[in-house]
Amino acid sequence: MKNIVDAAQFNGVKQIMQIGGIESLRKDFAVEGVQLKTSLIRDQGMKYIKDSGISYTFLFCSFFVDSFPLYIQDKLFAIIGDLK
What we know:
Radius of gyration: 16 Å
Number of helices: 4
Order of helices and strands: HEHHEHEE
Helix content: 25-40%
Largest sheet: 2 strands, parallel
Distance between the termini: 42 Å
Number of strands: 4
Shape: elongated
């Protein structure tokens, strides 16, 4: 993110848009109280953007893709019910 922000500043970019997971906006959405590693990395990048002075927009999407591995049990994927 530092390289992107530095390049944006150098080239006079006026707005940065970034996709962020919903857990970056709502910490209470963390699965079982566990903050995802992708969220920790993303949050640092978002702070760097905020501190850059460039206008920004963060789009907070579902954390489904980031949390997908948490829903795999015994090599099966299940969110609701007892799927066989």
